[in-house]
Amino acid sequence: MAKHQPFVLIIDDHPEELRAVTELLRVENIRVNLATDAQQGYQRAQALSPDLILLDVRMPGADGFAVCRMLKAGPRTQDIPILFLSAASADEERLEGLLHGGVDYILKPCLPREVLARVRIHLQLSLRAGKPGAESEPEALLSPDEVMLRAAIRFISDHLNQVPSLADIADKVGTHSKRLSSIFREHMGVTVFHWIREERLRRGRELLTESYMSMQDIADQVGFRSACNFTTAFRERMGMTPTAFRASTRVRETHGGE
Question: Phi and psi dihedrals of 212, rounded to 5?
């Protein structure tokens, strides 16, 4: 059986800045494909299933972080290692890239040998980990709207205690408010903010069941301004107070769930 030739996708709106990197990767028998904007990069990642992605952070339109959220939300691309490229050296930006699922962060201008070394390391780590489900049936291809919905839900869930504005949420997944609202109504049957409210209450129920946190702490965790606001919303939705709900779950646990 022929040895697998590694395949790297580079998504950067200024590919000429990475010409030396591209040439070195090809000399080292690594296949390279170039995409020059976020949409093209996302589509090629879906279609070509690269072994690794070099992703520029700052691009016009959707930035690299938005592309990463989309890739991590899709079953075909969620396990592909992503190495961010950026001219910004701010600690906050590097941390944001790693928190969004990137495995490494490389500063521009890049030293080609350093990029090659990091690419090799992460290709080896990915090979050792193996591709989950490689021998099973391939994942169904999600529509762009479904992927965007998954990415938005993941982003909201990660920021439930302080959810940004609708415009900011949309920007984080590479779209605009009107389209994101339409996607939620079509696929979830509710508005974005109705879903957020339901998710906050669902998470509140989990914390009431799984912890002994105070009502104020739970309210803070799930994004209510106060314990009083959380209690009111919970009672309206569940027909009982959070305290009564917690007591009822304790009783069920004591009696073995009967």
Answer: -110, 25
Q: pTM for this structure?
A: 0.64
53, 67 contact by CB (below 8 A):
no
71 CB-contact burial (10 Å; exposed 0-12 / middle 13-18 / buried 19+): buried
Q: Do residues 27 and 40 lie in contact, with contact meaning Cβ atoms separated by under 8 Å? A: no
Q: How far apart are alpha carbons 7 and 52 in whole angstroms?
A: 7
Q: Give the integer Cα–Cα distance in Å for 147 and 99.
A: 19
> Which of 65, 20, 51, 46 lies closest to 120, judged by CA?
51
Q: Residue 142 in 3-state DSSP?
A: coil
Q: What structural domains does the chain harbor?
A: 7-129 (3.40.50.2300), 144-254 (1.10.10.60)
- Provide the token pair at 38: 């976020």
CB contact at 8 A, 52 and 8: yes
Nearest to 64 by CA among 178, 180, 172: 172
List the chain pLDDT tens, one digit each, 258 residues.
456 789 999 999 998 989 999 999 999 999 999 999 988 999 899 888 899 999 998 888 788 888 998 898 888 898 999 999 887 766 677 777 777 788 888 888 888 998 999 899 898 888 766 654 444 444 556 788 888 888 898 889 888 889 999 999 998 888 899 999 999 998 888 899 999 998 899 899 989 988 889 999 999 999 999 999 999 999 998 899 999 988 887 766 655 544
